[in-house]
Amino acid sequence: MSVMSEAVFPLANPKQTKKLCEICQKPAHIQCTRCRVTFYCDVTHQQADWNSIHEKVCELMISVRTPAPFCSFKAERDIYQMQTLKRLEHLRELAHATAKNWVSEGKYSEAVPAAQLVLHCAIDIYGPEALELVPAYLLLAEVSIGLGSLSQAENCLSQAEWMVRKNPGCSRTVLHLLHRTLGRLCSAKEDYSSALLHFANDVYYSSEEFGLDSLVTAEGYFLMANVFMKQEKTDISNSLYEEVTRTWHAHLSQLMESYSQKEHESAQYFDVAECSEVNQMFSVMLEAQQQDVNTHPAYSTTLSHSLEQRALLSHSLAMFWFLCNNHKKALDFGKMAKEFIQQCEHNSLAESIQSLIQRAEEHVEQEQSPVPHH
Length: 374
Prior knowledge:
72% of the residues lie in helices and 1% in strands.
């Protein structure tokens, strides 16, 4: 039985007199011998929590779960409470980042305890019915979808929808995230009509909040395109993929310009989870373009257009990996982009691609050069 199938997501504050398992909320019989404030029903759940998140946060748990010392002055109690809330927020952010990293690697079982800790922290900070709990429930829903536990995902999304309905003035950010996750669930259930409706709402709210040319909105278009691809409506899906590619190419080009102006080229533009997600997205679009070329006759206008799109995609990937300091991959995709652009009638990207290839080659040579001994 998986950890997710046994998990129970709390709807009330988990701080109770009776000791409950951190994973499943059943009566606990095992205590973490390091922090002594975290409990489990069995060794399996203790190991799962340790592997997922507890190893990173064991000491932090002490400061947020140890009962407050007696203070006779209200000012001292207020200071202690404020410090505890700051620690809880730090713990919540760390658990959220860890869960997203597991998700980006496709390790959904490992993500469960970290995602649950996000919810525990949010409840402790905001209370059991606050709108701020919605992102935690959406994260748990995303993990559940990844595990194929669609009924569990529905439960999490029901909680999120209920909280949104209770707060009609919630932000567009919350609404776009809610519809995006609902779209993912409907897509997993092969209810493509509902999925497209939710993704359309996702695009609407994200464009209202971040703009039509934002990467957030582009991801909504990408998810819509995936659904159309499943419906074998390739013309629509490819059109949406092109919109995503143009948005990312413009964004990465701007980052490359700022990168070249830095004295020290050491800025981190993408974290581990983002690198994995962006690479997967571009890989899907490259494959779609390849299939489009294979299904159309040579020397057609469609082929020429596809080559331009593949050049744009390859150039985007080259810039992306360059910014991620993987210069070997940047060089490989740069050369791929050069091959595509040389076959196109319009080669306005040729100079930019060649410049990137040269810069990537310089970095690769430096990385391969032996380190001098002093």
